[in-house]
Design goal:
The structure holds 2 protein chains of 2 kinds.
Chain A: H1 21-37, H2 41-57, H3 62-86, H4 90-95, E1 102-105, E2 108-110, H5 112-138, H6 141-150, H7 155-184, H8 196-227, H9 246-271
Antiparallel strand pairs in A: 1-2
Chain B: H1 2-14, H2 19-38, E1 40-44, E2 47-50, H3 54-63, H4 65-83, H5 89-102, H6 119-149, H7 153-189
Antiparallel strand pairs in B: 1-2
Helix pairs in contact in B: 2-3, 2-4, 3-4, 3-7, 4-5, 5-6, 6-7
The chains are: A mainly alpha, B mainly alpha.
Keywords (chain B): Membrane, Transmembrane, Transmembrane helix
Transmembrane segments (chain B): 22-44, 51-79, 91-110, 122-140, 160-182
InterPro entries (chain B): ECF_substrate-spec-like (IPR009825)
């Protein structure tokens, strides 16, 4: 199960991995907000390219991300197909005018607007996927905690994030042990032999010991933290804090550019858009 | 007297943020993430029956709505970080609201830690849970998904409603026995009566 985690718990050696936690976080937030708000391929294609460059610069192992990439690509192609089947003229209603090429059967007509709209949607999802992938591959739990703290998030929330992420391998090991021991006592987990509701009941059977054994540790951890005077001061310092370097300055410049584009898009397209005009930029 | 009651309401809503709450929310969110990613039963394409929704019930019963809501929020973020399958803020927000509403237990007088949980509380819990899931996954998440990623409305809403049904089943059918079991466990420690 640990092998199927994509997140790494070790600091990496590549440029983006060595950045300050706050910079990574800001870079992710600005990229994601740009990807989510814009339906304009003039913005989406550069953002997609930028995130691809980030991902390649982390030098991911193909074996590590192969499974999830296939899954995402398959899932979203399926989703696009489903979107077309449910409303074949979705692009027409989003863009505003229609120009039918040919019709397949009944109401299933092929219009360039729909194809364009569906590919914009696909581009948005893949950009978001790529952005999340480089972030996941380059962040460690404590860096995420420091990064959030430097953005003035209350430090108790930062502790929730870093402590939670850090305890996930322990929990999944516990889960495996409990599952194995219950299977030894005769719990049938074979997908083909038991019905869905029986399997739901069985996963509750696994969950109860997992819940108890995990929350038993809460007292131990909380006491240890209390003994080290956690929560006494209003501020907190971190061992894993890295001072921003020249590289950070460069990446923060990218962040600022992205946020400026975001703000301009927000004002021009989202707020000042005339009523009835589509939010999708369409060249023809 | 009145002011005191008001203060206690805001405190019930926010929960008391001592070290134990911090650690519980962290561990709860981690558990939520692991359960969401690995311990789920595929029912239908793209829809899974996950027992993760028992965690907000548990944390809400012991610590109140805001800790429960944060368990839902960070749990879903952890699940996305672990799997690397992209970030879906629409579902983060939906999970936050749903877990927050599920965790409203102390507000209507169900004090699990003092062994107080009866049929009336169980009924209110069932109703609020279903309403919370309807608001969050039935409306807010699909709406945000349409705004953020431009999906087809009907499909998004269908996915949302399937999530409402599956999470509702888990939270109510498996959650109520959990709440009763917890109440029994705490009742043993608190058989003292107040005079």
């Amino acid at each position: 199960m640990e092998n199927s985690f994509v997140i790494s718990y070790l600091p990496g050696q590549h440029l983006i991995q060595k950045l300050n936690g706050t910079t990574k976080l800001l870079l992710l937030v600005s990229s994601l907000s740009l990807i989510m708000i814009s339906f304009d391929i003039r913005i989406l294609i550069p953002t997609f390219a930028l995130n691809i460059i980030f991902l390649i610069s982390v030098k991911p192992k193909w074996r590590q991300i192969r499974g999830i990439t296939y899954f995402i690509v398959f899932m979203n192609l399926f989703n696009i197909l489903l979107m077309y089947l449910v409303s074949p003229t979705i692009g027409v209603s989003e863009i505003g005018h229609s120009d039918v090429w040919f019709s397949i059967i009944g109401r299933y007509v092929v219009t360039p607007e729909t194809l364009f709209y569906l590919s914009v949607r696909l581009l948005k999802i893949f950009s978001m996927f790529i952005a999340s992938l480089w972030f996941v591959l380059s962040i460690t739990p404590s860096e995420l905690g420091v990064g959030l703290y430097r953005l003035h998030v209350p430090y108790k929330i930062c502790t929730v994030v870093s402590l939670g992420l850090r305890s996930i391998p322990d929990i999944s090991r516990n889960y495996r042990e409990i599952k194995n021991s219950l299977q030894m006592r005769g719990l049938e987990l074979d997908k083909k032999r038991v019905s869905v509701f029986k399997r739901l009941k069985q996963s509750v059977t696994i969950l109860i010991p997992l819940l108890l054994s995990t929350f038993e540790r809460v007292d131990v951890i909380a006491s240890a933290m209390d003994l080290r005077l956690y929560g006494i001061g209003k501020k907190r310092s971190y061992y894993s804090y890295k001072k921003p370097t020249r590289n950070d300055q460069f990446f923060r410049l990218i962040v600022i550019i992205q946020l400026i584009v975001f703000a301009i898009y927000l004002v021009v397209v989202v707020f000042l858009r005339p009523a009835g005009a589509g939010r999708v930029w369409y060249p023809w | 007297m009145l002011i005191e009651k008001k203060e206690s309401y805001s405190k019930k809503l926010l929960g008391s943020w001592d070290t134990k709450t911090v650690v519980s929310v962290a561990i709860g969110a981690a558990l939520f993430g692991v359960l969401l990613d690995f311990v789920s039963i595929p029912v239908f394409t793209n829809t899974k029956l996950s027992v993760a929704y028992l965690i907000p019930v548990f944390v809400g019963a012991l610590f109140g709505p805001l800790p429960a809501g944060l368990v839902g929020l960070f749990g879903n973020i952890f699940a996305d970080l672990l799997a690397g399958s992209g970030f879906w803020p629409d579902w983060w927000i939906g999970n936050f609201i749903a877990s927050f509403v599920i965790g409203l237990l102390p507000l209507y007088g169900a004090r699990i830690k003092d062994g107080i949980f009866n049929v009336k509380h169980a009924t209110i819990f069932t109703i609020t849970t279903i309403i919370g899931l309807l608001i969050s996954f039935g409306f807010i998440s699909p709406f945000l998904n349409t705004v953020f990623y431009g999906g087809e409305k009907a499909i998004n809403f269908a996915q949302g409603w399937i999530a409402v049904v599956s999470d509702g089943i888990v939270a109510v059918v498996a959650g109520l026995p959990l709440l009763y079991a917890l109440t029994r466990r705490y009742k043993k420690n608190s058989n003292l009566t107040k005079e």
